């Protein structure tokens, strides 16, 4: 796919408290999902969409992320000497994916604050935000559809997914109006983690956004919301309510998504992805069936 001038932002400054003690010294984004760290899947997704300029927003103790995407000459020489070209190719791939930059968030003040930190790097251009908790299967493209919708409308575009109403309290929920396209909706409002009875729909915001630069001045004046953090949802709500602007649209994603945000879903993601792999699935799937029968 051709290169896009649009840049991507990956917030990766969270503390990862759900995975302690594993994340005491290791960033949660570096937890392995089969044989790659979670953040590599996200960078690969951006690169597959033609984005070659990526800014990672990091916090303290996140040097492992930048180390991972650097080349490691001594390892590459060792693998070359051993003739292990398959592993050499996999090692080198992570350092050739894109031009990756890093910026410290400083104080962890929420997703909205992390996005605001990208202002200097992004400038006056639109940009893509990809969260590392949501892994999108590379067989089901999402970002390219969202970028096309943004180019068509000039609006902010969020990824939405239908979830069980019992689980909507775990997400931002969107109030929407239908369009002529079943997979595209106009977002009229957003509610952060509502109770089931207060949710405007069962369409949950998942971790992909295409945002105009006009979101930055809104974030600059957005007061801390839930949890004392600056919420990106609040800024999107303001864009949606602006009747004179292009508003906010949602792309309803019906593909495969792997949630690595908590421990059980993280384990499920590993099992699902490994089961689909040609090199692992044939051995893993029969064992899974036997294991399930013993439960």
UniProtKB/TrEMBL annotation:
Domain named Nucleotidyl transferase is located at 7-274
Where does the secretion signal sit in this chain? none
Q: Does the keyword Repeat apply?
A: no
**What is the designated name of this protein?**
UTP--glucose-1-phosphate uridylyltransferase
| Source organism per UniProt | Microbacterium tenebrionis
Which biological process annotations from GO are given for this protein? UDP-alpha-D-glucose metabolic process
Q: Which reaction does it catalyse?
A: alpha-D-glucose 1-phosphate + UTP + H(+) = UDP-alpha-D-glucose + diphosphate
Please give one Pfam family short name: NTP_transferase
Q: Which Gene3D superfamilies match?
A: Spore Coat Polysaccharide Biosynthesis Protein SpsA, Chain A
The record's EC number reads: 2.7.7.9
GO MF entry, a single one = UTP:glucose-1-phosphate uridylyltransferase activity
Q: Which InterPro entries match?
A: GalU_uridylyltTrfase_bac/arc, NTP_transferase_dom, Nucleotide-diphossugar_trans
């Amino acid at each position: 796919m051709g290169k896009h001038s649009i840049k991507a932002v990956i917030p990766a400054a969270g503390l990862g408290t759900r995975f302690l003690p594993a994340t005491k010294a290791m960033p949660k984004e570096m937890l392995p999902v089969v044989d790659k760290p979670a953040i590599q899947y996200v960078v690969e997704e951006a690169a597959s969409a033609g984005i070659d300029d990526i800014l990672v927003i990091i916090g303290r103790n996140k040097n492992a992320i930048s180390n991972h995407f650097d080349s490691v000459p001594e390892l590459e020489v060792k693998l070359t000497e051993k003739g292990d070209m398959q592993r050499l190719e996999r090692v080198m791939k992570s350092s050739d994916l894109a031009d990756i930059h890093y910026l410290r968030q400083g104080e962890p003040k929420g997703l909205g604050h992390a996005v605001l930190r990208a202002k200097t790097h992004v400038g006056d251009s639109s940009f893509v935000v990809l969260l590392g908790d949501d892994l999108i299967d590379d067989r089901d493209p999402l970002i390219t559809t969202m970028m096309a919708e943004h180019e068509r409308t000039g609006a902010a575009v969020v990824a939405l997914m239908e979830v069980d109403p019992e689980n909507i309290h775990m997400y931002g929920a969107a109030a929407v109006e239908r369009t002529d396209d079943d997979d595209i909706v106009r977002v009229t409002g957003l509610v952060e983690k509502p109770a089931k009875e207060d949710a405007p729909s069962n369409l949950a915001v998942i971790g992909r956004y295409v945002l105009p630069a006009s979101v930055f001045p809104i974030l600059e004046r957005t007061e801390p919301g839930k949890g004392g953090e600056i919420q990106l949802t609040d800024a999107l709500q303001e864009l949606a309510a602006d009747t004179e602007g292009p508003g906010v649209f949602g792309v309803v994603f019906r593909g495969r998504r792997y949630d690595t945000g908590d421990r059980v879903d993280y384990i499920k993601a590993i099992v699902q992805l490994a089961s689909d792999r040609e090199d692992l699935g044939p051995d893993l799937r029969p064992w899974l069936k036997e294991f399930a029968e013993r439960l």
